[in-house]
Structure formats: C-alpha cells, structure tokens
Design brief:
The protein has about 625 residues and is of the alpha/beta class. It has 21 helices and 30 strands. It has four domains: about 60 residues, Alpha-Beta Plaits; about 260 residues, TIM Barrel; about 80 residues, Periplasmic binding protein-like II (D-Maltodextrin-Binding Protein, domain 2); about 80 residues, Alpha-Beta Plaits (2-Layer Sandwich). The longest helix has 14 residues. The two termini are about 50 Å apart. The relative contact order is 0.08. Bound molecules: phosphoenolpyruvate and manganese (II) ion. The site of manganese (II) ion has 5 residues, from loops.
Length: about 625
Amino acid sequence: MIVVLEHSIDPEEKRQIVGFLEEKGFRIREIQGEEETILGAVGIIPIDLREVELLPGVARVIPITKPYKLASREFKREDTSIPVGPVKIGGSRITVIAGPCSVESREQIMEIAALVRESGAVILRGGAYKPRSSPYAFQGLGETGLKLLKEAGEANGMPVISEIVSPEHARMFSEYTDILQVGARNMQNFELLKTIGALHKPVLLKRGPAATIQDLLMSAEYLLAHGSEYVMLCERGIRTFETYTRNTLDISAIPVVKKLSHLPILVDPSHGTGIRAKVLPMALAAVAAGADGLVVEVHTDPEHALSDGPQSLYPEQFEKLMRDIHALAPVLSKELSRLPEKLPKISAYSPTISTEQGPILVAFQGEPGAFSENALQRYFPENVGTLPLEHFRDVFDSVLTGKSHYGIIPIENTLTGSIHQNYDLLLQYPDVRIVGEKTIRIIHNLIGLPGATIEDIRRVYSHPQGLSQCARFLDGHPQWEKVPFYDTAGSIAFIAREGKKENAGIASLDAARVNRMNVLKEGIETDSQNYTRFVIIAREELARNEGQSGTANRASLVFSTSNTPGSLFRALQVLAERNINMVKLESRPIAGKPWEEMFYVDVDIPPERGTFQKALEELASVTETLRTLGLYTV
Ligand code: PEP
Ligand code: MN
C-alpha cells in the first residue's frame, strides 16, 4: 500500500506510522516526491486499510493493486533516474551503452572503448562470463576480462557494465563494474537476483526470451525488495514463431513498461535482431518509442569476433547511429547523455562565483520554467545552478562581471527567425563569446489553475511569441481575451499569484510544474516544427581555453564590407574556395549607418585547422571589420 503523508506531519508522527507498519511486518520505503512524501509499505499481510488511514499524519492510503509493488507506477509516479558516476539514466536523457559482446583482449577493448566514446557512448559494455548456448563456445575471459573492462572504462572516463552469472561472483563484480547486468537467461534466477539486490549497485535486468512484461517486472521486484535502489530494465527481444531475426524485438514493451513502472527501460537492438543491418532501424524505433537508452554491440573486426560478430556494428555504423539519435532527440524533447569532458571546461577565472548551487552557475532570461532554463538544463550536467534574470542584457552582464560562469540566450527560432536583440548584444559585448549551442523543440501548453477546466477560461496570458505560435488553437476560442505578457513562464507565475480560475497561460510543461499549475491542453502550437536555437556564452578567457582544445567544429563570425559592388561576393568567395560550408548567412543594419549592413555567418570548421586560420586571415583582408563571435562544438 501507499501511505501519503500530510504536508504538515512532524517527525514523531512519521516515526509512529513507520513503527506501526513495521510491527505488522511491512517493509517500508520512503519517497520524497516533489509534491508529497509517501511511504511504500510492502508485504503480503492482511490489514484493514482504515487502521492506517486513521493514524495521525496520514493524508490517504492507496492500495497497490499490481503483484509487483516497488516497481509499479502506483508506488512512484515520477520516473526514476539512475545515477551511474557522471551519467544519469532515465528522465529526459537517452543513454547509450556500447562495446563488444565479449572482452577478448586488452588491445580489443581499449580500441573499441575509445571509438565508441568518441562517437558519444557514455557507458562501456563487455562480457567476461558468457552464458553461451554451446559449452564449446567461447566462455569469456572471466576475472581478467573484468579487469580489462575496468581499465578501458577508466582510460576513457566511462562507467562499465558486465553480465554476472553466479552469486559467487558478487564481490568480484562489485569491485570491477559500475552496473551489473542480469542476462536474459538469468532473469528468473531468483537466488542470483536476491544476492545482487543486497549489493546495492545499479542493475540492468534483461527480459528473458520467454518472459512476459509482468514476469520482467516481478524479477525487478525481487531486486528492489532485496535492497537494490536502482534497477533499469532492458528489452532484448523475445522468442516468437518468426525465424528471420534471432529474436523479435518487442518495441511495444517500451510504452507498456512506461505506463506500468517508474523504472527506466533500455533496448538492446543487437540481441533483439541478431543482424547487423537491422540494428540501426530498430535502435531508432526504440528511441522514438520512448526508450531511455540503448545497449549496442560494436566491434572493430566483427568477422573474427569471439561472440556475436554478425550482430556487432562496425564503428562507422555506430557513429552514424549516434548522429541519427542526436537528430531525433529534440523531436522527443530529450537529450543524449554526455560525459563531462565533452562539456566546456570550467575556468578558474572567477573565484567570486558562489558554488553553493553547484559547480557551474548559468544565467538565463526569464522566470523558472522558461524555455531558456530548459535548454540550459539539457546542455549542462544535472547539478548546475541557474540564475534567472529579467533582461537579455542582464545575462551578458552577469557573464562579463563573473556573477555566473555561463549564460544562455535564444538566437533564432524556426518559425519566427532571428532574435536580433541578442545578435546586437553579441556585438556590444566583445569580451563575451559563444562557447556552445543547444536547439530544443518548443512545445506550448495551455495551463490553468488546479481544478480549472477549459470551460472556465476567459483570459489567456503569454509572451506575444507564445500567443502567435498558438494562433490556430486560440482562433478556436474567439471569446477568450488574449493578453500579451513579458515572458511565457512569467505568465504562469502570474496566474498562479492571481488565483483566478478564468485565467490561463501558455508556456512549457516545466512552467506548469514549478508553479504547481494544471496542464489543460498539451501541444497547442500551430506548427509542431517549432525549434529554438540557443547559444551558450562565456567570458573570453574561458572561450579561449576551449578554443585551444581544438575540437570546435562550428564558428560564428560577423563582418561588414565596403559599400562597393561585389564586396560581399569577395568575402564569401574566401569560404567557397576552401570548401568551407556555410550554414547561416544573415544581414543586419549597422546602427548609426543607414543602409549599411553587418553579415552574420556560421560556418563548419574544416578538420584541418590551418585551412580555417588562412580563411580567417584572408576574410579579414577583404572585409572592413571582422569578429569571431565564437568557436564551439555542435
Ligand atoms: C549480452 O548482453 O551479451 C547477452 C548475452 O545478452 P542477453 O542476455 O540479452 O542474451
Ligand atoms: Mn552478445
């Protein structure tokens, strides 16, 4: 059962409730949710729920109807996120685990680890104890394999995962791995599950080839009931009458599990299909269906792999898969998990920044729940501090004066074009540079007071962009008054303060959540292809640190040309002759010089740095002014 506690409960009352339930024989798990604190009481013990309901401090009692309790959505409404070293699995992240089926040698695992890391995998896999159908097949390198896996993980800053097949190996796996994998064949090895549960380590539990979704959740329940805090599930294909593929990958298990359970679910398209060429489409399908991540087998020489060569991707195929997921993620309002080194390094230039809120402080314009805040949360790791400010200029000031390490500003929208104010600010603050970028999908929602219905609404507040981007929906309600507001998230804070059921606002789901408001209708934007590109800004010193890393692949430049025929042509020719790809070109009037224009250009930096340097030098000679707004990685 779930015991929801009153907001005002005092610690003594809580102790009394826990004591009462434990005495009856229940195991208790406390969950501090965003909105309420609950106690999960599990055990097969007959009890009249009213006995619990009457205890002081209890708001209500809800029976859990499913046979699995701790794994159920009834037990915990919010998605569980699992921290594994620097990575968080679940929530809005897509986590990719990759590596060979088996660790075969030091050279093999080192080479594959570096390649998959480079393409964006964040966790390294590699089997050391292989449950093979044939006793004559390669059985894995055992403890040596685990040692090599750990070494390769450490060399690349990646947590590692490997399959455990025997309770006897529990201590050894605790020492060498960050996540323990329970293989499909062992999903119902309950003694193994109990032993692993007691280790309190993250576990990846694979669905058995003949297991139902309920069987899978019951096995997860074993782990949770025996102490595991963090369990992730993995769909890896089941046995059906189809023989073309090795297994039938049950994509529908993903939304089903999401409804029944709060646990993250990953998908293994390698074992799910058994055929290399089928891995990419099924991986994309799994991500599109809502999977929290993938487990993919990759090998540099699959023809000679000691296990599962035919289903292992070549590194180039894996790289393509990662690029495709990167493109797909914003459509799903999700983000690929990244390892910290791929993020801009934090410079030590500003000791004045308070690090109380986290190791990095990022300024944004707007109120909590703003789209800018959402974009920064997706760009930076989980534990960054955020600084909401009123104006875009304040964001630049805070970066310049060292009040924050970084700032984030919107720069263009697919429907409404460039945000010129921010382009102008980039020019006005020469000591501030672009160090990164993030594009997010903008989904607008109609948000009202808890208990309000669409019929109650008389007035709708939002930023003018929010109102115009939802024109078709609003046209369906001509009687509503549309009121422009300075900020989307701010409009939700405003209706919350006003407390009138007739007021609604248009903003993000985050804005509804932080203001504890109710979403009346999701996704009301007229055009669903609504994306905003943000750039991350930092002081020049920091930008220079990053430029030195040499990994930047995008440059934002701004230049002006003389008012003579062919001057823009000559500037662009410099790029064209060096085969430098231009991804944006926009002109903007120069303040104080009527009819003279600045040109904003974004280009892909070619792999040979020298070519780009030469192009910049020549560009400087054919333009009147030239500035690099930033070199960064996209
Ligand atoms: C594996 O991940 O290498 C493996 C053996 O998977 P499964 O248990 O899904 O067959
Ligand atoms: Mn395998």
